[in-house]
TrEMBL record:
Lineage summary: Eukaryota, Viridiplantae, Streptophyta, Embryophyta, Tracheophyta
Annotated protein name in UniProt: Laccase
Note describing how the cofactor binds: Binds 4 Cu cations per monomer.
Species this chain originates from: Cannabis sativa
UniProt keyword terms in alphabetical order: Apoplast, Copper, Glycoprotein, Lignin degradation, Metal-binding, Oxidoreductase, Repeat, Secreted, Signal
Subcellular location: Secreted, Extracellular space, Apoplast
One annotated GO molecular function: copper ion binding
Record-linked SUPFAM superfamilies: Cupredoxins
Length: 584
């Protein structure tokens, strides 16, 4: 063995020894194909340990865990720990060609996952191509040992994972979408915990059922793992009390529905009745369907369901037998908003407030020293060579669809990742000039906009921030090509959502309405169609991806990267890479 190889092995053993000497939990993730049958047909899907959805990770606030990811599949893959801030440790964050190169078939990557102040529900998912459609699972973060929930302890805690299912192989869906230059094929079904539910063909026997007892409190850990749709969710004749979002507690908010964007997680308490609300029926549908407002934007208009079943008291037999059900489950006809109900969607998201008490304080940046104003737009590129070859320009008027932030459509590197290029001072991979203001000012939300505004510039542009900067970022939606809501996600940070609005942002008017007292702390914010949202955060974490969590918009280029310089002290500096980083 060569000296360099011996040295690498020594470093690896030292790394594993240090890991094992700390109080920690180890998980083994095996990426592999597995056959699953949905909607009357069977296909192989990529899974973790053969499970769909994947295994649930359970930790306490402040824990560190180690996940050994071994790729036995046929495709490159990365795993992202969505909402986990990973202080100083972007090496294990997961986005392909941003903070790591993919784990190739047959290879292994040992990921160190550092939890800090997150508490509640987060999730993990693949972050390469569109593999997260089936490679995802819940992360349950319990209060630090010796403490408890800021609400009465629930009788049980249940993950509710909302997803999408295609009959086709998901990579075929992606390939056809990219080649076409148009919109992707919509999913064939939505799912709840991997099952489409009663309203789809061949699906009723597998419908997820949650058996509950009377007069009990249940904590639903709701995750939107859908690829391309914001969702409404409701339970017939039952209210939900929202107590957390994106791994942070909120003031209790009682509601008959929720609006949840792709990437978001919501903790909601379900209080069951002293007796079932309808004496003649002990079954109630949980239902989810799309919220979609874009003109000429295709979407899945179906509805997924699961069943809430009341158990008969004093039964000693198993849950399935004990239900003794009568009649068809009741549907939340009057509670589940219609697909284009913008008022309901906005009323929900703008009603969220941080808990902001002595045990769970907040720290909203007040003195802002870095202002960023970014448009988020759907765009088009002209058809290459001016004509439609092999039907590859299916965007409006024979163009190819794209997306941008501040008129920059992000281009992923493919030979080395952004983090490695930054750490090792490798030039030519990125340009550190992502604009902090749009290059052109216009009526962003106007109905009739010049076609010349639709074409962005390509580039791997990033924004460098000084350590400790207090950042205010205004996302401004535009009506270019098609105005639509955008769930914007920032890796490595939680941010305070201090304001929302419709139309063009006006600092003189809109800053007066900012909530600086108890704004919700989130990692994903729904920017309303033809509107704006303002977030604030302190830049104290090194290299992190920001993107729209609608997968088609990420693919089109609605992305950028924040690079935060090292601070003065060791605890404010980027950790060195682990010894087994996947090679490019």
């Amino acid at each position: 063995m060569m000296f360099g190889q011996r040295l690498a092995c020594l470093f690896f053993l030292m790394f594993m020894f240090m890991n094992c000497t700390q109080a920690s939990t180890h998980y083994n993730f095996v990426v592999k194909e597995a056959p699953y049958t949905r909607l009357c047909s069977t296909k192989n899907i990529l899974t973790i340990n053969g499970k769909f959805p994947g295994p649930t990770i359970r930790v306490h606030k402040g824990d560190t865990i180690y996940v050994r990811v071994h790729n036995k599949g046929n495709h490159n893959i990365t795993i992202h720990w969505h909402g986990v801030k990973q202080p100083r440790n972007p090496w294990s964050d997961g986005p392909e060609y941003i903070t790591q190169c993919p784990i190739q078939p047959g290879e292994t990557f040992n990921q160190k996952i550092i939890f800090s102040n997150e508490e509640g529900t987060l999730w993990w998912h693949a972050h390469s191509d569109w593999l997260r459609a089936t490679v995802h699972g819940a992360i349950e973060i319990f209060p630090k040992k010796g403490t408890t929930f800021p609400f009465p302890k629930p009788h049980k805690q249940i993950p509710i994972i909302l997803g999408e299912w295609w009959k086709k192989d998901i990579l075929q869906v992606l390939e056809e979408f990219v080649v076409s230059g148009g919109q992707p094929n919509v999913s064939d079904a939505f799912t709840i915990n991997g099952q489409p539910g009663d309203f789809y063909n061949c699906s009723k026997p597998g419908t997820f059922k949650l058996v509950v007892e009377q007069n009990k409190r249940y904590l639903l850990r709701i995750i939107n793992a859908a690829m391309n749709e914001i969702l409404f969710f409701s339970i017939a004749q039952h209210n939900l009390t929202v107590v957390g979002i994106d791994g942070s507690y909120t003031k209790p908010l009682t509601t008959n529905f929720i609006t949840i964007s792709p990437g978001q997680t919501i903790d909601a308490l379900l209080q069951t009745a002293m007796s079932p609300p309808n004496r003649n029926n002990r079954q109630y549908y949980m239902a989810a369907r799309a919220y979609s407002t874009g003109v000429n934007v295709t979407f899945d208009n179906t509805t997924t369901t699961a069943i809430l079943q009341y158990k008969i008291l004093n039964d000693t037999v198993n849950d399935d037998v004990a239900c003794r059900l009568t009649g068809q489950p009741l549907f939340p006809y009057y509670d589940l908003p219609y697909y284009n109900d913008t008022n309901s969607a906005l009323n929900f998201v703008t009603s969220l407030r941080s808990l902001a008490n002595q045990d769970h304080p907040i720290n909203v940046p007040i003195e802002i020293n870095k202002h960023i104003f970014s448009t988020i737009s759907i765009n088009t590129f002209p058809c290459p060579n001016g004509y439609n070859v092999n039907d590859t320009c299916q965007g409006p008027n024979g163009t190819r669809l794209a997306a941008s932030m501040n008129n920059i459509s992000f281009v992923f590197p493919n030979k080395i990742d952004v983090l490695e290029a930054y750490y090792f001072h490798i030039n030519g991979i990125v340009r550190a000039n992502f604009p902090i203001f749009p290059p052109l000012l216009f009526n962003f939300t106007g109905d009739f906009l010049p076609l010349a505004l639709q074409t962005p510039m390509n580039g791997t542009r990033v924004r460098v921030l000084e350590y400790g900067s207090n950042v205010e970022l205004v996302f401004q939606g535009t009506n270019l090509v098609a105005g639509i809501d955008h769930p914007m996600h920032l890796h490595g940070f939680s941010f305070y959502v201090v304001g929302y609005g419709l139309g063009n942002f006006d600092p003189k008017r809109d800053e007066l309405g900012y909530n600086l007292v108890d704004p919700p702390l989130q990692n994903t914010v729904m920017v309303p169609k033809n509107g704006w949202a303002t977030i604030r955060f302190a830049a104290t974490n090194p290299v992190w991806f920001m993107h729209c969590h609608l997968e088609r918009h990420l693919t089109w280029g609605m992305d950028t990267v924040f690079i935060v310089k090292n601070g003065k002290y060791k605890q404010a500096q980027l950790l060195p890479p682990p010894p087994d980083m996947p090679p490019c």
